[in-house]
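Long-time lurker, first post. I've been practising inverse folding by hand and with some scripts of my own, and I keep getting stuck on stretches where the structure tokens seem ambiguous. Below is the full token string for one chain I'm working on. Before anyone asks, I'm not after the true native sequence, just a reasonable design that respects the backbone. If someone could post their per-position residues I'd love to compare against what I wrote down in my notebook.
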């Protein structure tokens, strides 16, 4: 039986449906839409495109498909214009819809296209990666990357429905699955010590993609994010805790060149860096700091910038372009303990550089 997690946003409220072989399109049909565009990437479309299109058509929705090249480099203005062009060719209007079938890149890209085409049309998210299921498909953040930084052009735009079909994880490559687990660990660190302990005690089951365990973990992550987004949709306050590890992680991802390092891999290193800063600035206990690194490593994630061959100067320059930076000064989400974080912290340049060197030497 499917689980439902409600995102309460008044007239923009919607449900995240979590289970296996989830039907998509019911809410889209209720909007009055009859036709739309299903967008996926070159890895996902050959595996799941036909089934998703058939499901939409089985309930009377007319849908065409567009395939974008796989990889973070496609989260660009060029790909965005391809979606606009295809939508115009099809004659889509303000009462049409878009469906994002894919991981975080497709979800963010298609979400922004739906937000801006005809000033906004209905959007459904069908996440196919662990990262997208627990994080990027929920909450309405959409956007594309620029050469200077990640997600620098975008908007907040909520879907009308999110279908989290856990069966899709069965075809997900191991590296992609493990990358998504970084976001899962993040939720434990920022909000739920019991979730952190559950993952810690069941590493083998998580990596084996155990059905009931996976459903429990995905549902809990969605519940945490739904609660945060319902309280703070546009990141004016508490929602900023979701950025734990992202200031450094995004810089690492950008410096490496989009696609070489997966988002979750960069985030894992970013969380370890944030934990090191937290020990210096917030008194995070050493044992809790080490538990995070140990868990990430046991899941197969990198924990040091040395794993990516980056220098401090390269990364510090990239952090300047982060959206959370003000007057070239980066702001961090730091932790007082597992399950408790504080937002908007600035850190001296000396400590920033020293924390980097500690991680490199420890690798």
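-- Answer (accepted) --
I ran through it position by position. Result:
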């Amino acid at each position: 039986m499917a689980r439902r997690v409600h995102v309460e946003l008044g007239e923009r409220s919607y449900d995240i449906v979590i289970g296996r072989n989830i039907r998509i399109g019911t809410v889209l049909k209720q909007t009055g839409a009859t036709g739309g565009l299903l967008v996926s990437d070159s890895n996902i479309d050959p595996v799941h495109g036909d089934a998703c299109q058939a499901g939409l058509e089985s309930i009377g929705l007319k849908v065409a498909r567009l395939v974008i090249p796989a990889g973070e480099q496609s989260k660009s203005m060029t790909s965005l214009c391809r979606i606009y062009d295809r939508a115009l060719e099809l004659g889509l209007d303000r009462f049409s819809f878009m469906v994002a079938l894919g991981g975080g890149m497709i979800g963010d890209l298609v979400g922004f296209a739906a937000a801006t085409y005809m000033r906004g049309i209905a959007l459904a998210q069908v996440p196919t990666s662990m990262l997208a299921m627990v994080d990027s498909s929920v909450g309405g953040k959409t956007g594309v990357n620029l050469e200077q930084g990640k997600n620098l052009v975008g908007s907040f735009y909520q879907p009308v429905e999110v279908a989290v079909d856990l069966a899709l994880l069965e075809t997900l490559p191991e590296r992609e699955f493990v990358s998504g687990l970084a976001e899962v660990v993040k939720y434990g660190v920022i909000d739920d010590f019991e979730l952190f302990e559950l993952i810690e005690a069941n590493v083998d089951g998580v990596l084996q993609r155990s059905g009931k365990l996976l459903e429990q973990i995905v549902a809990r992550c969605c519940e945490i994010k739904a609660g945060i987004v319902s309280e703070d949709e546009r990141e004016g306050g508490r929602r900023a805790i979701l950025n734990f590890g992202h200031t450094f992680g995004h810089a690492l991802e950008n410096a490496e060149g989009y696609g070489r390092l997966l988002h979750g891999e960069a985030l894992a290193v970013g969380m370890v860096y944030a934990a090191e800063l937290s020990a210096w600035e917030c008194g995070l206990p050493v044992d809790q700091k080490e538990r995070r690194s140990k868990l990430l490593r046991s899941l197969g994630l990198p924990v040091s910038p040395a794993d990516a061959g980056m220098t401090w100067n390269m990364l510090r320059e990239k952090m300047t372009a982060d959206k959370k930076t003000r007057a070239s000064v980066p702001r961090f989400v730091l932790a007082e303990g597992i399950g408790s974080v504080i937002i908007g912290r600035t850190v001296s340049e000396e400590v920033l550089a020293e924390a980097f060197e500690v991680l490199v030497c420890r690798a």
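A couple of notes from the structure itself: The mean pLDDT is 93. Residues 174-362 form a domain with the Dehydroquinate synthase-like, alpha domain fold (CATH 1.20.1090.10). Happy to go over any region you disagree with.
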